[in-house]
């Protein structure tokens, strides 16, 4: 099972390499039977993927993890995306009892007390709901890119997720941030307004800040922790090599004109 999964993932990665984004998605949908799930964080990479999935009108489910601590701008782009493409993004929320127990024990912002407390918060707000979102899935689409951080430098187009028994598909793995920005701009894709305010990577509001010019894209996530600890448990990769400061720095390109984008999208759907 494990060897077969790894072989299937390797074959998929090889065959995806020469295709454009929509072609990569189509290949996965054609080749992998069973439930396919895309978990979007509503960040700019994921918006590019949502756009391609929506236009393909394929069979991949689009879901999100509503941690309860997201920025208002994230809820805004969520609603805007559903309206623009005529889709519903299914939300998975934390279990109420786990949330109440954590807040009672640690306080409302108790995730700042320690790495363990932060990981516990990410555990019940993200990891456990992710498990439910992926229940029975054969493949899991993500918007991960190799250039996002040192922790993600070895991200392939497709890989075996042995723990979950599925193939994890990262169709943007070999895209740069500039590629993503260009794709979003050229296709008039709605995106989170925070990206224009110095937030290249957007997670929960209390755990995300804007980055400075030259900082790593994910420097604004859990900025009070060491770099090697900065993953929420959804995408665990062993750190491998270093990304030099500024190597994949945030690209603050001209924002797409929002009004023009909305007009254009109306013609697409
Ligand atoms: S990012 Fe912060 S608020 Fe969100 S789940 Fe993790 S620790 Fe909790």
Automatic annotation (TrEMBL):
Record's keyword terms, sorted: Cytoplasm, Iron, Iron-sulfur, Metal-binding, Oxidoreductase
A GO cellular component annotation in the UniProt record: cytoplasm
Pfam families given in the database record: PAPS_reduct
Main subcellular location: cytoplasm
Phosphoadenosine phosphosulphate reductase domain segment(s): 36-210
Cofactor: [4Fe-4S] cluster
Sites where the protein binds [4Fe-4S] cluster: 121-122, 204, 207
Protein localization: Cytoplasm
GO biological process entries: cysteine biosynthetic process; hydrogen sulfide biosynthetic process; sulfate assimilation, phosphoadenylyl sulfate reduction by phosphoadenylyl-sulfate reductase (thioredoxin)
CDD domains: PAPS_reductase (cd23945)
Oxidoreductase as UniProt keyword: yes
An annotated Gene Ontology molecular function: phosphoadenylyl-sulfate reductase (thioredoxin) activity
Pathway listed: Sulfur metabolism; hydrogen sulfide biosynthesis; sulfite from sulfate
EC number: 1.8.4.10
UniProt remark on cofactor binding: Binds 1 [4Fe-4S] cluster per subunit.
Tagged with keyword Isomerase: no
Family of the protein in this entry: Belongs to the PAPS reductase family. CysH subfamily.
PANTHER family the UniProt entry points to: 5'-ADENYLYLSULFATE REDUCTASE 1, CHLOROPLASTIC, 5'-ADENYLYLSULFATE REDUCTASE 3, CHLOROPLASTIC
Function, in words: Catalyzes the formation of sulfite from adenosine 5'-phosphosulfate (APS) using thioredoxin as an electron donor.
Protein's name according to its UniProt entry: Adenosine 5'-phosphosulfate reductase
Origin species: Methylorubrum salsuginis
Name of the encoding gene: cysH
């Amino acid at each position: 099972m494990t060897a077969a999964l790894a072989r299937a993932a390797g074959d998929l990665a090889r065959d995806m390499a020469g295709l454009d984004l929509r072609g990569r998605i189509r290949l996965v949908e054609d080749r992998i039977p069973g439930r396919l799930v895309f978990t979007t964080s509503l960040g700019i990479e994921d918006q590019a993927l949502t756009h391609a999935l929506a236009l393909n009108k394929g069979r991949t489910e689009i879901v999100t993890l509503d941690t309860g601590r997201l920025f208002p701008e994230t809820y805004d782009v969520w609603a805007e995306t559903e309206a623009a493409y005529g889709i519903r993004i299914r939300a998975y929320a934390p279990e109420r009892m786990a949330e109440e127990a954590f807040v009672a024990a640690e306080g409302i912002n108790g995730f700042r007390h320690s790495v363990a407390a932060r990981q516990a918060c990410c555990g019940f707000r993200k990891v456990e709901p992710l498990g439910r979102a992926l229940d029975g899935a054969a493949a899991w689409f993500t918007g991960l890119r190799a250039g996002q951080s040192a922790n993600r430098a070895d991200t392939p187009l497709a890989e075996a997720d042995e723990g979950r028994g599925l193939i994890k598909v990262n169709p943007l793995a070999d895209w740069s941030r500039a590629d993503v920005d260009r794709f979003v701009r050229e296709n008039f894709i709605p995106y989170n307004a925070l990206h224009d305010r110095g937030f290249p990577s957007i997670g929960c509001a209390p755990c995300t800040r804007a980055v400075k010019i030259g900082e790593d894209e994910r420097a604004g996530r859990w900025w009070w922790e060491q770099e090697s600890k900065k993953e929420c448990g959804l995408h665990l990769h062993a750190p491998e090599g270093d990304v030099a400061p500024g190597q994949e720095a945030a690209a603050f390109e001209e924002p797409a004109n929002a009004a023009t984008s909305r007009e254009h999208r109306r013609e697409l759907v």
